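Long-time lurker, first post. I've been practising inverse folding by hand and with some scripts of my own, and I keep getting stuck on stretches where the structure tokens seem ambiguous. Below is the full token string for one chain I'm working on. Before anyone asks, I'm not after the true native sequence, just a reasonable design that respects the backbone. If someone could post their per-position residues I'd love to compare against what I wrote down in my notebook.
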């Protein structure tokens, strides 16, 4: 609209104003301050349905009465895309994962490449995928396709020979030619209709040894360079690097979990699990028997938990296969159960859709519903300005006391999300206390409290696990690992002798002592720098609760400090983890630059205002000189006093399509005590376009008052009529 207006013949002053607005992209997706610039990181609830034909001897998807489609074409002709899309919309999901192919790579769409390599019979004549793309589009639900690129073990001997499954020559070149032909054809066929792929068994030997991973990555992005690629096959928080550069994210396939969902562990990665009692990923049981393994209420609560832990996106991917045919679509209990689950999610939708896990109350992988610290998990809006507290295990009475937020935020205007009723709040350096009104009570499922967030150190914390070598233990201490009761890193150190203590020296302005409470635990005396501070209690008459903040001090002077915790009573004393505050020394400090845009969104001061997400009112700092040619720009932060520095975090602008643009290609980071003589501590050349998360640069600790970023080669922004700017959403400096 704006560009169309500016294209008309207007006065010079108005034209300049229009071009400035266009170049700054002030109104481009401002509400989508997405650090990873994709739908996946903001999604926490999906449905996975395997709709798949095996063979005459290996049955997969069935009709509701138990009969079996005779062949792949019959199955393809009996996918009810219209009803499927309407149902999943009523389930409230963010995205759907459906089979592209599974057993023997029997594809659910016409594929000339599949026919070329293998002959007829392995590609449906009916296009199930396009039907579903069309049906989902009105609902705005993203579609990812399940594929298996190492399923040659299910091929006939003739097909294995034709596709090179067992031919290891030239790095299994023939198999890679086959796979990339098929994947590229599929990607180009559906374009942006496919938002992602979910690749099975990327952690297994065949994927690791047979697949040309960079080549496959290129093929997976054919037709849509923004696709999200998820690799399945891990059992926890396996590193995405196992995908060898093919995948963006990793999925945990959760099976063999306990019957009690309250003891299921949430993970940083996406969790995919079968929700039906038959344990199959496709519909394999005829109607007549309830197939729901868990209640909708328990599924909702675990979905909320996963949303608060799931740092890497995708959340919960619940699985239930749909039947073939145009009658009953789902196994007994599934549709009602998922519609109930969707109702619960939609009732608090703002806190679960298009959000990230909280950085104020981050929860570690391995957290369970029955071991929640303080009974809560939290999520935050993508612009970092709204915090949602999910009270899953409410306290007795109307008062909820939380530790101070780890990222230093200040909260205000708390309300109950469902009814808008005000919640009283007090916040100090140690605690946040929330009190319900007289007419309100805790919801047994999930009371969501919405709060406005401001400030924040953007420094966060460094976690020192009990096994850290820098923690000194005096006296006899034991170690307990693989506990599976919700402790950080699943372990603790413990002692039973009064007078025994732990001691830890750190360089920071704050520290938290975090450990468990139980019925036979007692008191611990806390000392800071040899001075007694207070006695804290680890006693909890109600039983074991992990990861409780027993002591917090966030107001120490900058420099070196020592914490000591001495056991004085009770049977046990434990140490689980110490949270060491890493303050943002640049917060609200003075910024100067070679040039600067100055308006309500962009300004020098907005580079150090504590907001790491580009959002209306705080986009960050932007240069203004020589926009049409590559050139040099600089920006400097004055920390007021000279102090020890070892880390600089540079946050790119992260507003939708502009994410990463403005981040220089070549640059240096320099330090100075006098703003005249400079020492270079980091040099970067050819820096790739970053995602919207902070880019970290560490160096040996040295004293400085001034921090300067010199951009010597800038990046043209295609969304900014290819102009050259240096831009940062936030500049963070840590000791």
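-- Answer (accepted) --
I ran through it position by position. Result:
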């Amino acid at each position: 609209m704006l560009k169309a207006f500016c294209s008309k013949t207007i006065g010079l002053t108005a034209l300049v104003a229009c071009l400035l607005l266009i170049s700054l992209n002030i109104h481009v997706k401002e509400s989508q301050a997405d650090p990873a610039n994709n739908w996946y990181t903001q999604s926490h609830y999906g449905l996975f349905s395997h709709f798949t034909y095996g063979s005459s001897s290996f049955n997969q998807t069935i009709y509701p009465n138990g009969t079996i489609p005779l062949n792949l074409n019959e199955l393809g002709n009996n996918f009810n895309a219209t009803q499927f899309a309407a149902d999943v919309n009523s389930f409230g999901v963010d995205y759907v994962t459906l089979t592209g192919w599974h057993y023997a790579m029997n594809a659910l769409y016409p594929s000339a490449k599949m026919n070329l390599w293998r002959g007829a019979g392995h590609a449906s004549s009916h296009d199930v995928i396009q039907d579903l793309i069309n049906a989902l589009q009105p609902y705005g639900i993203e579609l990812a396709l399940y594929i298996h690129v190492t399923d040659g073990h299910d091929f006939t001997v003739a097909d294995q020979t034709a596709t090179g499954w067992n031919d290891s020559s030239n790095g299994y070149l023939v198999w890679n030619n086959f796979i990339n032909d098929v994947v590229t054809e599929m990607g180009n066929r559906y374009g942006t209709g496919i938002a992602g792929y979910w690749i099975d068994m990327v952690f297994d030997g065949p994927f690791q040894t047979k697949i040309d991973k960079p080549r496959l990555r290129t093929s997976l992005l054919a037709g849509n360079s923004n696709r999200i690629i998820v690799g399945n096959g891990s059992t926890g928080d396996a590193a995405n690097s196992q995908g060898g550069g093919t995948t963006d994210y990793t999925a945990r396939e959760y099976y063999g979990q306990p019957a009690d969902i309250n003891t299921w562990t949430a993970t940083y990665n996406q969790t995919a699990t079968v929700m039906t009692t038959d344990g199959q990923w496709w519909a394999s049981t005829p109607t007549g028997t309830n197939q729901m393994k868990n209640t909708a209420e328990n599924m909702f609560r675990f979905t909320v938990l996963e949303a608060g832990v799931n740092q890497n996106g995708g959340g919960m991917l619940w699985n239930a296969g749909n039947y073939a045919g145009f009658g009953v679509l789902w196994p007994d209990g599934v549709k009602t159960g998922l519609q109930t689950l969707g109702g619960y999610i939609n009732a608090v939708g703002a806190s679960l859709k298009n959000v990230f896990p909280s950085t104020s109350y981050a929860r570690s992988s391995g957290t369970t519903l029955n071991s929640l610290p303080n009974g809560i998990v939290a999520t935050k809006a993508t612009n970092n300005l709204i915090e949602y507290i999910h009270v899953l295990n409410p306290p007795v009475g109307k008062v909820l006391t939380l530790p101070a937020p780890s990222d230093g935020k200040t909260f205000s205007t708390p309300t109950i999300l469902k009814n808008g009723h005000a919640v009283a709040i007090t916040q100090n350096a140690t605690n946040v206390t929330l009190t319900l009104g007289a007419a309100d009570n805790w919801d047994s499922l999930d009371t969501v409290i919405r709060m406005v967030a401001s400030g924040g150190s953007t420094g966060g914390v460094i976690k020192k696990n009990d096994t850290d070598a820098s923690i000194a233990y005096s006296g006899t201490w034991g170690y307990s690992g693989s506990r599976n009761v919700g402790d950080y890193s699943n372990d603790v150190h413990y002692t039973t002798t009064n007078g025994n203590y732990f001691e830890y020296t750190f360089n920071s302005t704050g520290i938290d002592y975090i450990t468990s409470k139980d019925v036979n635990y007692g008191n611990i005396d806390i000392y800071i720098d040899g001075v007694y501070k207070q006695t804290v209690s680890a006693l909890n008459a109600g039983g074991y609760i992990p990861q409780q903040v027993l002591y917090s001090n966030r107001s120490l002077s900058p420099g070196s400090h020592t914490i000591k915790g001495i056991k004085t009573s009770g049977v046990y004393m434990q140490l689980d983890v110490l949270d060491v505050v890493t303050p943002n020394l640049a917060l609200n400090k003075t910024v100067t630059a070679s040039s600067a845009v100055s308006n309500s969104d962009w300004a020098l001061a907005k580079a150090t205002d504590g907001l790491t997400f580009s959002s209306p009112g705080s986009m960050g700092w932007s240069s203004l000189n020589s926009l049409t040619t590559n050139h040099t720009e600089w920006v400097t932060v004055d920390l007021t006093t000279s102090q020890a520095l070892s880390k600089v975090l540079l946050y790119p602008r992260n507003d939708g399509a502009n994410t990463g643009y403005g981040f220089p290609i070549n640059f240096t980071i320099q330090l100075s005590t006098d703003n005249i003589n400079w020492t270079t501590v980091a040099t970067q050349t050819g820096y790739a376009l970053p995602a919207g998360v902070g880019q970290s640069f560490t160096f040996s600790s040295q004293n400085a008052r001034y921090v300067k970023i010199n951009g010597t080669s800038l990046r043209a922004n295609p969304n900014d009529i290819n102009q050259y700017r240096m831009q940062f959403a936030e500049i963070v400096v840590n000791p």
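A couple of notes from the structure itself: The first helix runs from residue 2 to 6. The domain at 47-351 is CATH 3.20.20.80 (TIM Barrel). Happy to go over any region you disagree with.
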